[in-house]
Structure formats: structure tokens, C-alpha cells
Amino acid sequence: MRASFDIQSASGAYRVAIGEDLVRAAIAAPTHRIFIVDRRLLPQVQFITDPIIEIEASEENKALERMAPVIEQLKRFGATRETEIVAVGGGIVQDIATFVASVYMRGLRWHYCPTTLLGMVDSCIGGKSSINVGMYKNLVGNFHPPAQILIDLAFVDSLDAVQLTSGLMESVKICYARGAEEFGTYLKLAPAVPLGRDKAARIIEQSLRAKKWFIETDEFDQAERLLLNFGHTFGHALESATHFDVPHGIAVGVGMLTAYRFAEDAGRLSEHGKALAGALMEHVRALLGPVRHTLSSLERISPQSLFEHFKSDKKHSQTHYRVIVPVRDGELERISLERNDATSAAITEAFACSLSEL
Ligand SMILES: NC(=O)c1ccc[n+]([C@@H]2O[C@H](COP(=O)([O-])OP(=O)(O)OC[C@H]3O[C@@H](n4cnc5c(N)ncnc54)[C@H](O)[C@@H]3O)[C@@H](O)[C@H]2O)c1
User: Fold this and answer.
1) For 222-242, how does the pLDDT look when each residue is reduced to its tens digit (9 = 90+)?
2) Staple 231 to which of 51, 124, 204, 255, CB 3.0 to 4.6 Å?
3) Are strands 52-55 and 33-38 parallel, antiparallel or unpaired?
4) Is residue 159 in contact with ligand 1, taking CB distance under 6 Å?
């Protein structure tokens, strides 16, 4: 084991372990266990002898109507209230497992082995599920934290450059949101792609310890934890305008650039705040460089169209847009912008500027 620590939550503490051979250890438990596994990873977990529900990791498969067949499979495999679920996969498998574990017979214990870097550095803690309904992404969900999180570094080996970059974007976002010290420690790790297991382990630990503070301070997303939406409101516009052709973490990277542009043009970023925010932007641009091809579908999409997608984000209210922007040195702030023509023009311009920089 390389590291382990606990996360406190309203439903009890749960442990995060980072190391090798952790999925193998999970099958040695005496309780009745049913695995939910990303189909692509089956060759890597052939040693599992418990029943397996296979999931193809697509957005269609985390739609609300696709939950019923997963729940039926649990019943066919004999799941009772004592059964524990073990989920092995990225964010799609996590969302499905969180949701079905929370509702099956009013709730089962579950364990999560994240297999994408994005899952390892970010989504594995916090206990949220996000499920799609019709054309609306992540419209419904709930909180049901796992009993433990097992981060098996062997899964890092098979991740490609785009998946690794996506994970690093979420990692740098969390560390920057936590403050200057954490951001400085993150940069000292020199995060870059390719990424070996040793460096991945250090980045994962740094990132999760930073996120732990947000979750323990504001588990249910009312105040401090909202800062982790940095880059997301702008990023979601890129994802939905390209029908999810732009991967989530890459969209968050461009979203952070757009938030910076908006803050600077709107006079929200003080001169004193530019050094660290500038270092963040430089790092994000350096990460995006080698995976620029993932943004090619944006060439056919205008900044005005991106703004139309931005408008429908679920974080806005009827009267105001809500965005997270860099303000003072190393600090983020959640601001409300009245829905009017001036705001529309400023946000459209920020999209145009950030995209022209890439
Ligand atoms: N609930 C939350 O807190 C939360 C947070 C962030 C994102 N999400 C959701 O997670 C989803 C995105 O998740 P994601 O990017 O982790 O991945 P994913 O589950 O969509 O997987 C991305 C791709 O990577 C493959 N893959 C997974 N592990 C691999 C490995 N070790 N080697 C090679 N390929 C591997 C998958 O088969 C898939 O093709 C989105 O639906 C997003 O909304 C949820």
C-alpha cells in the first residue's frame, strides 16, 4: 500500500487506499459480492470469480431507463440486503454503481475501484451519482458514498494521453481551488503526460487530500464545494455543443481558460491575482497542446452557439448565471451575473478569446 486516509461523511467515514493489487484483495472478502465492471477492463480482472454485471462505458448507458436492467441483474444474481457491490471502472461505472447501490432494497454497501485518472484524482470521493434523463446530462442523482475506495495503480498503465490529460485537468483544478500552497505542491510534482505509476500515485494523493477538505467542509454542495465547479459551466457548453465529442476533462481545461478570460475582461481579476492564475493558465495550455486534436469539432461551432449551450447549465437560476472565476492571488469566487445583453456579449467574447488562444 502506498497511502491510505479516511474521508468523514454524514453516513460514516470511508477509507481511500492507493496501491497495487487492490482489486484482487477486494475479492477475498467473506461477504456476498457482485461486481459491476467496465466491459473493456474484463481482460484485466479475469481473476474475479464473483458474478459480474458488465457495463459498456457510454453516456447512453447511464440514462435513468438503463438503471432498471442493472437492478434486475442484481436480483437475478441473488442480491440481498447483505450483498455488497464492487464497482470497477471510470466515472460512468461509478455513477451507475452509486445510483443502483443507493436504491436497491433501499441501499447496499458498495466499494469502488476507479480505473480512469479522472476517477482516481477526483470523482471517486464525494459520494455523488449523476444520471442522464433523455437529452439532459447528469440531471438526477443523489449522495451514497462507497464503504471504501481502492485505487489500483495497475489501471494507470492502459490509459491513453487523452484520458491522462483529462484526469490532470481535474487534478489541477482541485489543487488550485484549495489554495496557493496546494497549487504550488501540485506544480512541483511536474504533472505531464506520459505518466508512470509513481508520479500518478503522488498526484492522486495530493489531489484527493485537497478535495477531502471540500467534501468534509461542505459535503452536500452548498458553499465551498461549489468552487470545484471551476471550469465546468463553460466546459459543459463545449461538451453539449459537440455532443460529447470533447472529453469531459479536456472541456474543463478549456473552461478554466474561458473563466480566466472572462474574469480578466470583466475586471474581476485583480493585478495581484494574475501571477498564480497566469501560472495555472500556462500549465493548462501546456497540457492541452498534445491533445489539441480532441477539440477539432469546435472548429464548426461559433462562440454564439457555445453561449446558447452555456445558458442551459443547471447551475444557473432563472435570473442569474453562476460561474466560478479566479479573483485574487490563487483564489476563486462564485459570482452571479444578471441575464442581460451585456453579460451575453461578455461570455460570448470570453469563449471566442479562449478558443483563439489554442
Ligand atoms: N459522480 C461524480 O462525482 C462524477 C464526477 C466526474 C465525472 N462524472 C461522470 O463520469 C463520466 C466520465 O468518466 P471518466 O472520464 O472517468 O470515464 P468513463 O467511465 O466515461 O470512461 C472513459 C473511457 O475510458 C475507458 N477506460 C476506463 N478505465 C480504463 C483503463 N484503465 N484503461 C483504458 N481505458 C479505460 C472506458 O471504457 C471508456 O471508454 C461522465 O459521465 C461524468 O459525468 C461523475
Assistant:
1) 989 999 999 999 999 999 999
2) 255
3) parallel
4) yes
Answer with the one of 139, 158, 177 that is the final residue of a domain.
158
In this predicted structure, the answer to whether residue 273 has a pLDDT above a threshold of 80 is no
The residue type of 348 is T
Q: Is the CB of 303 under 6 A from ligand 1?
A: no
Tens of pLDDT, residue by residue over 151-189, are 999 999 999 999 999 999 999 999 999 999 999 999 999
Cα 344 to ligand 1 centre (Å) = 32
Does 132 sit in the ligand 1 pocket, CB within 6 Å?
A: no
Mean pLDDT value across the chain? 95
What is the model's pLDDT at position 272?
75
Please say which residue of 158, 173, 190 terminates a domain. 158
The domain that holds 316 is classified in CATH as: 1.20.1090.10
Ligand 1, atom nearest to 116 Cα: 28
- For residue 125, the model assigns a pLDDT of 97
The predicted pLDDT at position 155 comes to 98
Residue 171 lies in a domain: no
127 lines ligand 1 (CB under 6 A): no
**For atom 42 of ligand 1, which residue has the closest CA?**
91
Number of domains in the chain: 2
